Amino acid sequence: MNKEEQLCEAAKSGDITLLNSLINSGADVTFFDNNGLTPLMHAAKHGHAAAAKSLLVAGAPWNAVSPSNMSAGDFAMEEGHQDAFDVLLNAGIQAELILGTIARKESTKGSKSGDYLDDRVSFSEDKLMDAESKAVMMAWEKPLMEAHAKAICSQGGDVLNIGFGMGLVDTAIQQYSPTTHTIIEAHPDVYDRMIRDGWDKKENVKILFGRWQDVLPQLKSYNGIFFDTYGEYYDDMREFHDHLPQLLKPGGIYSFFNGLCGGNPFFHVVYCQLVSLELQNLGYSTQLIQLPVKDCLGEETWEGVKHKYWQLDVYCLPVCQSMEDSD
């Protein structure tokens, strides 16, 4: 048995003395065994929080995944090992704050916005697709969008939505008869369809064509804001959050499509916590409302779609409000 295999065994048993000795002797903490598991995954799976901490300090990657797409945090979650889970969650949040190794490198759904805006998109009854057969928006999101609309319209007044897509959230917003309803849409095909469908004729609707970054000077302040752009990185949303103090009225509600790392349960938890922390630093509290979505997502839902951008059983709907206003 080589050093790395011994390291896996020490991680399984929680033998800290042996584990640290092997680490100090140069054992590779990034090693994958014959089952595709790392020492950190073994420590997490067996609930050895101290072993997990030692491995992380030694450079074990918190976000490595097994052949079944399970990370160490997923194993801790699955087995109900809270202490090990907390160690891994904190490590993930700290790493992402510093490095941004997962969702900041990729869009929640698609590719970088410049490419997307140059592509043709296609509409069908249940989905909006980009040129690479990746879903921009799908009909299964309708109940989620209705819940988002209810949240951001709870204060009445003026409402802003960034990203029209299939119009699911905007149709829901209209049911609440906001004083004004501003929609930002950057894709020319989607914009043309909006005009054909008469959205520009609605009495309380104002459409701004362009990227939100480009129309910022035309915006005022709003009682409710929803953010759901396609083809942008996580950093783009973080940049938008920096503008919230100017865009969201006191007491207003902000929400966003929470598709961050929607293919992995533990990574999703990390990013829910991360975005909550970043909004907290801007003065906003974030409540995550859990909505079951498993029944919406049979295999037939994804027929013809290149990438399943959501694979979790529960959707965490964020409701954000100024901490001063929510006291």
Automatic annotation (TrEMBL):
It holds the Pfam family Ank_2. Residues 107-327 form the RMT2 domain. One of its GO terms (molecular function) is protein-arginine N-methyltransferase activity. ANK repeats lie at residues 2-34, 35-67. SMART domains: ANK. One of its GO terms (cellular component) is nucleus. It is found in: Cytoplasm; Nucleus. Keywords: ANK repeat, Cytoplasm, Methyltransferase, Nucleus, S-adenosyl-L-methionine, Transferase. One of its GO terms (biological process) is methylation. Its main location: cytoplasm. S-adenosyl-L-methionine-dependent protein-arginine N-methyltransferase that methylates the delta-nitrogen atom of arginine residues to form N5-methylarginine (type IV) in target proteins. Monomethylates ribosomal protein L12. Monomer. This is Protein arginine N-methyltransferase 2.
